[in-house]
């Protein structure tokens, strides 16, 4: 008996757990609260007899009420002392809760003490008294579970065979229902009292029989039309949901939810709009009832399964109804309804997680979050496919769909504002808007949609919300790719989108390196694509160089990974200089000159500690760069290359002595000797006498200057 005089039904740990949870929510005593938490764990582990646990809980609750009554008496009525020993809650040794020391309470009077002693102390349950395990586990599994399933299946088969071969159509259909209902009644009214697990098996078979009977009556026996089939299926599903609530059964709930989708099999090409609306409304109603009337156990597992089945049904619906003549607005309403179900499931799971964590239980919602992300991608793609398949839709329908999704997602964000997943609907809204606005032949609408989403993302990025970094990066990447793919110089939308990309540079606040690389290369590629002639490489190199100066000298853009951006920019410049080897740039002196200036500026200005590129061999790099530029330049007078190389050798020797870098001096000396060898073996052949004269004279003068430098410095070193 509980404190209210109600008898605890056999085999129902759930009622005891619910009673414990009720006391826990009302308890104001620390000792009794700790005891209830421990008792709840013992109930869930089911290591003790239920009757003993119930008696212990009832006695402990009476003790708690009496102790609370005594504590609420006026302070002066009785002296203050410690809690009497007979007022402590007795529990098993391994579950004992240490009471607080010296808790002041009112010592009862003689009459009150006598009354307290009349309350029987709760019996101690030894820790070593768990429920005995049944011997022969495998034998009993086969005897109870497997044979019960096989027997139930055989009974259903027998009923189907009986009705199919010995009765007319209507009687056959009704007998199918009668057999399933009879099995369900026997299971719930008789078997459940003694064998709850076995009853669950038979009840599941009975519910399955009801669904099977409905499908057979429609497809084979033709007793029902589609409207009657939908209504009967909805009633069966609601019954299964309510039964699962009463029995707190995960199996019943999943069976009722998934089996409701069987109505999809009854849909044919002749389905009308009203019938489709009835089907869609029934499925959405069943989904909402499953969320609003949850089961008490296995909530997380059911929510994850519900989320997954929601997506699977959406794909089945898209495949099944793709070729039917159903107005687009009704198909869109169904998908938008499924998007609403997603938000309700996420909110229900977060509420459940918060409630369980408040009492010390850990809830893992990772699987449901993964299914939410997969469903977001899948449902938005289905939404886009519907618009692609129906190119005659109106703009108002497209805008209305965007508005409906936006409202659902905004409301969901507000409802989830206290939870870590509050930005999940925002991601969903972006995916839906992109898929809907992408399905149009008007590029202006797509660009406007991209810009609106990009502006919202950039404004939100100013708050540096970590959860929105991925969305910001995704939208920026999509905008940049669309800009490079669209690039219609005759369209004003191209330059509007370009302006959006340029302005977005000033909103970089997170993941600076990624955005800097993305935007710099996007602008460089766009500029090169719009230009013609020989200025492509200089423009590309110039944008990369300006990007390095901008992002390294403004503290707001200078992130901790700025060296990565510098590496990408420097690599891009190197590729541009290598592309100068292309013969198309022959006699392109302006191109060579601009590239030479950018190359020297990069080495002089950016090869510093501030740019994390303070190379020790910077002068050698400059010498190699000048040598490379002197070699690749193409003119009508080949001897000019040799003269330029000799000048570079002279400069290297002079600079090497000035900055006291022996490696640079040696490089200049070796380069001068190689140029002389080149003149004798290569340049001397095939040129006119005048060119030979100029070449030998110029190279000879430079060689003498180099020699003079060494002679002068040698004398200085000797005197010193």
Can you walk me through this structure?
This protein has helices at residues 13-26, 30-45, 50-71, 110-118, 137-166, 169-194, 196-219, 226-247, 250-260, 273-292, 299-320, 328-358, 366-389, 395-415, 424-438, 443-461, 469-486, 492-504, 512-530, 536-553, 562-579, 589-606, 618-632, 639-658, 662-683, 689-719; strands spanning 80-81, 105-106. The chain contains 26 helices and 2 strands. Helix 17 (469-486) runs antiparallel to helix 18 (492-504) and helix 20 packs parallel to helix 22 (589-606). A two-stranded antiparallel sheet has the order 1-2.
Question: What is the secondary structure topology, with strand pairs?
Answer:
Layout: H1 13-26, H2 30-45, H3 50-71, E1 80-81, E2 105-106, H4 110-118, H5 137-166, H6 169-194, H7 196-219, H8 226-247, H9 250-260, H10 273-292, H11 299-320, H12 328-358, H13 366-389, H14 395-415, H15 424-438, H16 443-461, H17 469-486, H18 492-504, H19 512-530, H20 536-553, H21 562-579, H22 589-606, H23 618-632, H24 639-658, H25 662-683, H26 689-719
Antiparallel strand pairs: 1-2
Helix pairs in contact: 1-2, 1-3, 2-3, 5-6, 5-7, 6-7, 7-8, 7-9, 8-9, 8-10, 9-11, 10-12, 11-12, 11-13, 12-13, 12-14, 13-15, 14-15, 15-16, 16-17, 16-18, 17-18, 17-19, 19-20, 19-21, 20-21, 20-22, 22-23, 23-24, 24-25, 24-26, 25-26
Task: Name the features.
720 residues; mainly alpha; two-stranded antiparallel ribbon; 72% helix; 1% strand; disordered N terminus
Short description:
The chain has 720 residues and is mainly alpha-helical. The chain contains 26 helices and 2 strands.
